[in-house]
């Protein structure tokens, strides 16, 4: 591996660690303080819609900044990244709005209603995923092989539990009927 790539990756890892530490401190230090998750701050289910949208936007911007730093983009690649970043921002805003709308509606009362809601959400997720995949494919094609490896690793982190990605951000707390397990709906 070329020295500049190694140096770029090392700098990206250091910056990522610093960003992660800053984010952890901003969330209130976790449960170590004895006053609940994130220092007693409200979870997703207790946030006002505008607060939820702001947090989701902030988190998406942090992921994109981390990704841009890790990829060490060339001048020719930056326009493709800006397009990709804007697509992801629009998607995140749309998801936040949908979550707020869902929270504002009456929760399902029966198993059938919950299943109908899950089915609707599944269809919506499929459309969102297809749109996101197209955007990722377009940007991914502009990357070098080394950058693709970095992108793959960063993309995996975004979804890993504990990384404040989709999985990590969606577990725990009351549900809105979008799942079948206990305490959902």
Structural account:
There is one protein chain. The protein has 185 residues and is mainly alpha-helical. It is 67% helix and 0% strand. The chain contains six helices and no strands. Helix 2 (49-71) packs antiparallel against helix 3, helix 2 packs antiparallel against helix 5 (145-159) and helix 3 (78-104) packs antiparallel against helix 4 (111-140). The radius of gyration is 18 Å and the shape is elongated. Residues 21-36 and 161-185 have low confidence and may be disordered. Residues 167-185 have a biased composition (Gly residues). Residues 1-26 form the signal peptide. This is Spy/CpxP family protein refolding chaperone.
The amount of helix comes to: 55-70%
Secondary-structure-based class equals mainly alpha
Unreliable residue runs: 21-36, 161-185
Mean pLDDT: 73
Straight-line distance between termini: 51 Å
Question: Main β-sheet: number of strands, strand sense, barrel status?
Answer: none
- Give the number of DSSP strands: 0
- Count, helices: 6
Radius of gyration: 18 Å
Q: N-to-C SSE series?
A: HHHHHH
Q: How much of the polypeptide forms β-strand, as a percent range? A: under 5%
Shape: elongated
Protein name: Spy/CpxP family protein refolding chaperone
Region (Disordered): 160-185
Keywords: Signal
Pfam families: LTXXQ (PF07813)
């Amino acid at each position: 591996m070329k020295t500049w790539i190694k140096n770029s990756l090392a700098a990206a890892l250091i910056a990522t660690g610093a960003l992660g530490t800053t984010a952890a401190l901003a969330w209130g230090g976790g449960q170590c303080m004895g006053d609940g998750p994130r220092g007693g701050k409200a979870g997703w289910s207790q946030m006002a819609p505008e607060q939820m949208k702001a947090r989701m936007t902030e988190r998406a911007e942090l992921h994109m900044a981390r990704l841009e730093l890790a990829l060490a983009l060339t001048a020719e690649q930056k326009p493709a990244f800006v397009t990709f970043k804007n697509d992801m921002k629009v998607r995140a805003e749309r998801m936040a709005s949908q979550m707020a709308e869902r929270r504002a509606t009456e929760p399902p009362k029966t198993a059938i209603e919950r299943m109908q809601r899950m089915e609707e959400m599944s269809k919506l997720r499929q459309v969102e995923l297809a749109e996101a995949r197209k955007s990722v494919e377009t940007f991914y094609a502009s990357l070098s092989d080394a950058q693709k490896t970095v992108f793959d690793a960063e993309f995996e982190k975004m979804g890993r539990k504990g990384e404040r990605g989709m999985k990590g951000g969606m577990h725990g707390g009351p549900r809105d009927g979008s799942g079948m397990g206990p305490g959902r709906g």
